[in-house]
Amino acid sequence: MQEPARNHAGCAMGRNPCWAVPATGRGGRKTFPNPNMFIIAMLSLVFATAPLQGGGQTGTAAGAPKDKTRVQAPPLQAPAPTPAPGNPVAVISTSMGDITVELFKDKAPVSVQNFLQYVNEGFYAGTIFHRVKPRFVIQGGGYTPEMAERGTRAPILNEAFNGLKNTRGTLAMARTRALRSATSQFYINVVYNSDFDHKSYAPDEFGYAVFGRVLSGMEVVDQISTTPTGSKDGHDDVPLTPVIIKGVTVK
């Protein structure tokens, strides 16, 4: 059988010729060999240029105004930690703001009882944070703005072995190099000070006793830690403007 004659596009002449697509340039009419491919191509063109439902465009929210930057909602803040049942909550009121703390009575009973006794006596009112260092600690509870040290009760047991770490925002008992020398002074960790953690019963690795944590007001702690400091009466890192503890109350 003789092969049917074909035009310049390779389509059979006569019956059932290929669909012809008008050309826009010179060269006359062009042919499209497969009708289904033509339909698919046309649908693709339509969907590629059509706006999204609701008036939106690709990459923007539906209904959003054109040529304007998308406004994003601020990130949600993490909820404040919840104190464990039975643990006291205290507010340390300072000249730079309030710091609310949970006291770990369940894990550091001696240190917490000691702290609360000083609170009940009104001992901390009028003392200062006398040692502050960014990315380290803020320490207070023993000196007046004139750098006069207040008299204290006898030192207490060092509970550094209780398993609590000196992570950011924790409260711990300040002491001298003597293991059992903590009285009224405490510090708040601005960062995780792993060197202060209990590692062994050797004197240099015994550590410092953590007895609480900040529930709210960590921004106040950070602000205190960055206040300008200098030297005063033999002490370094003393705020040039005293950061006064106005009082400590138990909720």
Brief summary:
This protein is an alpha+beta fold and 251 residues long.
Can you describe what's shown?
- It is a single chain.
- The protein has 251 residues and is α+β, with helices and mostly antiparallel strands.
- It folds into 2 domains: 59 residues, no CATH class; 162 residues, Cyclophilin, CATH 2.40.100.
- It is built from 3 helices and 12 strands; from the N terminus they run E-E-H-E-E-H-E-E-E-E-E-H-E-E-E.
- The strands form 3 sheets. It has an 8-stranded antiparallel β-barrel with strand order 3-4-9-7-8-6-5-12. It has a two-stranded antiparallel ribbon with strand order 1-2.
- A hairpin with an 8-residue loop joins strand 1 and strand 2.
- The N terminus is likely disordered.
Counted up, domains total: 2
**Assembly annotation:** single chain
Structural category is alpha+beta
- Main sheet characteristics: 8 strands, antiparallel, barrel
Strand order of the largest sheet: 3-4-9-7-8-6-5-12
**SS summary, helix count:** 3
Q: Describe the global form.
A: globular
Strand content: 15-25%
Overall pLDDT score:
82
| Top-tier CATH class of the largest domain | Mainly Beta
